Amino acid sequence: MVDNERRTGAPALARGLRVLELLADSESLSLTEVAVALDLPKSSAHHLIGALIDAGWAERDPATMRVTLGLRAWEVGQAYDGAQSLSQRARPFMDAVRDATGETVRLAIRSGADQVCLAKSHGTHKLVFDQRIGARLPCHATGLGKALLTALDDAGLTELYGNGELEVFTEHTRPDVASLRADVSAARARGWAEDDGEYILGIRCVAVPVFDRVGEVVAALSVSGTTARFSAEQADRCRHELQQAAGELAQRLGEHTLPA
């Protein structure tokens, strides 16, 4: 336990995570059992468990005073399982787009104002910029991100960004929320989003949302390439393949996708 605390540099966090691990391996634990397992005074174990309970990570049975995992732990586990299931089910459709276009295909979900890459299917062309799996990029400056933002109406975009300026990465980045709203509105109307050098100069991206059975955006698929090689014709071809893949993926998930 001491070694783990030294590695993390955050003893309280390490102890809290250790309690969650203990709870995951047991039906329930008493205060004494937690204190013994962590080699802590009961008072310290009591405060640690109390913090986990307050945050929803643990629950205490008022009759037995024994502690179990809380709803928050279940929610995080479900989110992980959902992301894994989505990327696994998307793989054959991503591979089909890659085979048809020769381009690298990405799958992403939105986390706040960022898009997070869940999976990639590598194409044959060398990439100038490659977003790694798990990496976050700003939604407002990427095609993938703007496809995901189509889930939000103007009020939702204002809640997320306010009404002020946005971080600018290149001369083509949308500099404020008003211009982003216009971009997202256009993407929502036509069913696909794009960016042309908005995050990195010389990189063009087309992306499409994936919808669930009630018409909500659950993910997005994209293809990107260098502006010099990624012509309008290639972008249109990729968009067509992406829209077909998004529709098929939605059906595979048992969901419904809006028409292209």
UniProtKB/TrEMBL annotation:
The question of whether DNA-binding is a record keyword is answered with yes
> A biological process (GO) annotation for this entry?
glycerol metabolic process
Extract the InterPro entries matched here. Answer: GAF-like_dom_sf (IPR029016), HTH_MetabolicPath_Reg (IPR050707), Tscrpt_reg_IclR_C (IPR014757), Tscrpt_reg_IclR_N (IPR005471), WH-like_DNA-bd_sf (IPR036388), WH_DNA-bd_sf (IPR036390)
PROSITE patterns, alphabetized: HTH_ICLR, ICLR_ED
Please provide the record's keywords in A-Z order: DNA-binding, Glycerol metabolism, Transcription, Transcription regulation
Query: GO molecular function, one example?
Result: DNA-binding transcription factor activity
Domain named IclR-ED is located at 72-255
Pfam families under this entry?
HTH_IclR (PF09339), IclR_C (PF01614)
- Source domain of life is Bacteria
Q: Where is the HTH iclR-type domain?
A: 10-71
- Protein function: May be an activator protein for the gylABX operon.
This protein's name: Glycerol operon regulatory protein
Name the species this protein comes from: Occultella aeris
The gene behind this protein is allR
